[in-house]
Amino acid sequence: MEKTVSAVLVAAGSSTRMGFDKLSFDLGGETVLHRSIRAFAQCPQVTELVLVAGKNRDFVAQQAADCPKPVQVVAGGATRAESAKNGVLAAHGELVAVHDAARPFVSAAVITATLEAAARCGAAAPAVPVKDTIKAAARGDGKTVPPDCAVQTTPDRSTLYAVQTPQCFDRAAYLAALAELDATRARLVTDDCSLFELTGRPVQLTQGDYANLKITTREDLPRPAQRKETEMRIGHGYDVHRLVEQRKLILGGVEIPFEKGLLGHSDADVLTHAVMDAVLGAAALGDIGQHFPDNDPEYAGADSLKLACRVAQILKEHGWRIENIDATLLCQRPKLAPHIPAMRANLAAAFGLPVEAVSVKATTEEHLGFTGEGLGIAAHAVALIEAV
């Protein structure tokens, strides 16, 4: 798809059914509106964002302040349809993706599939099959079940879909449909696709996501455990130390019999150092040199496993949990295989993990390079962490 795309986020509602501004609701450190903005800012196809605001214009502008793509804030109208129209009129893209800002959980897959369908046929909307049996009644106000509410019909559920946003359109076709709609039919527009349907233009449904819910009432608010999305990160660590005489060889907290040891300010435990850097790197919290400087007398000869315990505490204080660790030692001599179980156990204890979550491997370098010539030992490590 080579067409330019404008995302129009409608954020002008009054939240009367909520009793407070739902767009400012905290989803674990991020507002509903900011999360919606982020979803489209991270979408490669989107070239600009148009935010449609009401009396909350200052708040809307503030939430978009860190958006890496061009953003404009425009005034909404008296109705949802008018607000969407104002956003589309201000957009510059060949395609427009009109999205309810109160749907913060929209995925990149949903956005992309809907845009691609709109590029092909002019209009598309994500949808999910209706799970519940639907009853059509003689009357209702759309908010409560009135007294003596009688069932009229039960539609065939297999042909019913709940439509979501973003609803995506060819912008020129959208404006042409708008021009064709008279005032009477304009009142029948319940969503953006209705504009196309009422003017005889086709609309294609694409696969939506049940998680792409709209926050309309208090019951729609996620429970505390759901407010912060599960975020996982991966970090890589690398360290190397020279082998010298009159030093102990300590790897993963295990003292290994050998005629040489590793040179360093601390105990020079290259394996533990690589793992600590992987863990810190995953959380973007610097490296061991930043936390334990090699010119600080406090760390002279320090036990690296004790430093690893402190790194684990730093991760915890910043809201991260270590999930697993995988490390590889590059060492020509001595043979390390007999000591690996003890290394795994030590690292697991230091980082508060089960042994099964810690992998340590060792390989030679076939006498190639720094480590292959026996001049030193190096280690690589990878760590997976998860937000808590």
UniProtKB/TrEMBL annotation:
The record marks 17, 22, 265, 364 as: Transition state stabilizer. Its EC number is 2.7.7.60, 4.6.1.12. It comes from the Bacteria. The keyword Transferase applies. The keyword Lyase applies. Pfam families: IspD, YgbB. Pathway: Isoprenoid biosynthesis; isopentenyl diphosphate biosynthesis via DXP pathway; isopentenyl diphosphate from 1-deoxy-D-xylulose 5-phosphate: step 2/6; Isoprenoid biosynthesis; isopentenyl diphosphate biosynthesis via DXP pathway; isopentenyl diphosphate from 1-deoxy-D-xylulose 5-phosphate: step 4/6. 4-CDP-2-C-methyl-D-erythritol 2-phosphate binds at residues 239-241, 265-266, 287-289, 292-296, 363-366, 370. A divalent metal cation binds at residues 239, 241, 273. Keywords: Isoprene biosynthesis, Lyase, Metal-binding, Multifunctional enzyme, Nucleotidyltransferase, Transferase. Gene3D superfamilies: 2-C-methyl-D-erythritol 2,4-cyclodiphosphate synthase (3.30.1330.50), Spore Coat Polysaccharide Biosynthesis Protein SpsA, Chain A (3.90.550.10). It catalyses: 2-C-methyl-D-erythritol 4-phosphate + CTP + H(+) = 4-CDP-2-C-methyl-D-erythritol + diphosphate; 4-CDP-2-C-methyl-D-erythritol 2-phosphate = 2-C-methyl-D-erythritol 2,4-cyclic diphosphate + CMP. CDD domains: CDP-ME_synthetase, MECDP_synthase. Its cofactor is a divalent metal cation. The record marks 157, 214 as: Positions MEP for the nucleophilic attack. Residues 233-388 are annotated as: 2-C-methyl-D-erythritol 2,4-cyclodiphosphate synthase. Residues 1-232 are annotated as: 2-C-methyl-D-erythritol 4-phosphate cytidylyltransferase. Residues 232-385 form the 2-C-methyl-D-erythritol 2,4-cyclodiphosphate synthase domain. One of its GO terms (molecular function) is 2-C-methyl-D-erythritol 2,4-cyclodiphosphate synthase activity. InterPro entries: IspD, IspD/F, IspD/TarI, MECDP_synthase, MECDP_synthase_CS, MECDP_synthase_sf, Nucleotide-diphossugar_trans. Bifunctional enzyme that catalyzes the formation of 4-diphosphocytidyl-2-C-methyl-D-erythritol from CTP and 2-C-methyl-D-erythritol 4-phosphate (MEP) (IspD), and catalyzes the conversion of 4-diphosphocytidyl-2-C-methyl-D-erythritol 2-phosphate (CDP-ME2P) to 2-C-methyl-D-erythritol 2,4-cyclodiphosphate (ME-CPP) with a corresponding release of cytidine 5-monophosphate (CMP) (IspF). In the N-terminal section; belongs to the IspD/TarI cytidylyltransferase family. IspD subfamily. This is Bifunctional enzyme IspD/IspF. It comes from Faecalibacterium intestinale. The gene is ispF.
